[in-house]
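Fill in residues.
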């Protein structure tokens, strides 16, 4: 079962566009890094809700796919009356609408998976979803990431030679949490749902030069002041013009580095 909604006007969608905190902290621009933490993986962004009947299965499908980074945005589409998803925000609904407008579609739905900011798939259809992820893996840009912790701060170094159609790449970071539990009422029944990869906060860290090389940016949120319950930091490069994502990498916040 899918639930869809159409925007009233393009202007309303634009006014509701997501606002991301920007911290323009550039440490260096130089040659490609040595000993990176790893290459980028495709980023799958799942737009979901605790009151969407098909979404719990979609989350389980997302967990089964290997070789990807994951983000789960809870949207407000299903909120009505006393049914309120406590993880849902208008900012995530706006992000989904931005993707819809970018691909010139007329509707949003849940559970929707956006792969690397381009392909849209119904996340509860495993074959189609997995096929779209396989295509993204084949076309993955060779982005390299390296994390560093300096006292309270976290910095991320990114290195790549960007494709010619990428003109405004930005480094973004999402703080996520897994095993977030919420009790929801379905008809006369109440269910306890466990949510994975829930995005707690997102921020834009810095602009990335389009020239080949590397750049280091720091998060505006310190290690000690990270969002409550955050267990993972997912970073990715996204072009502001095309909304294309050039791969993502993550840091387990529970591990000492």
């Amino acid at each position: 079962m899918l639930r869809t909604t159409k925007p009233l006007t393009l202007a309303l969608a634009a006014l509701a566009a997501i606002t991301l905190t920007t911290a323009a902290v550039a440490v260096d621009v130089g040659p490609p890094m040595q000993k990176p933490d790893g290459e980028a993986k495709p980023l799958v962004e799942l737009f979901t809700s605790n009151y969407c009947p098909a979404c719990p299965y979609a989350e389980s499908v997302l967990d089964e796919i290997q070789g990807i980074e994951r983000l789960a945005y809870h949207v407000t589409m299903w909120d009505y009356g006393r049914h309120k998803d406590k993880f849902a925000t208008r900012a995530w609904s706006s992000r989904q609408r931005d993707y819809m407008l970018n691909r010139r579609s007329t509707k949003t739905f849940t559970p929707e998976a956006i792969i690397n900011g381009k392909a849209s798939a119904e996340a509860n259809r495993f074959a189609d979803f997995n096929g779209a992820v396989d295509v993204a893996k084949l076309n993955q840009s060779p982005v390299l990431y390296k994390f560093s912790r300096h006292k309270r701060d976290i910095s991320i170094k990114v290195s790549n030679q960007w494709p010619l159609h990428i003109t405004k790449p930005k480094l973004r970071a999402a703080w996520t949490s897994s095993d977030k539990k919420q009790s929801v009422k379905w008809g006369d029944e109440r269910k306890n749902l466990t949510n994975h990869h829930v995005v707690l906060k997102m921020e834009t860290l810095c602009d990335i030069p389009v020239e080949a090389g590397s750049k280091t940016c720091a998060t505006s949120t310190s290690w000690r002041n990270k969002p409550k319950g955050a267990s993972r930091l997912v970073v990715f490069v996204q072009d502001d013009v095309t909304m294309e994502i050039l791969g993502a990498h993550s840091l387990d916040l529970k591990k000492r580095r």
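The longest helix spans residues 90-102.
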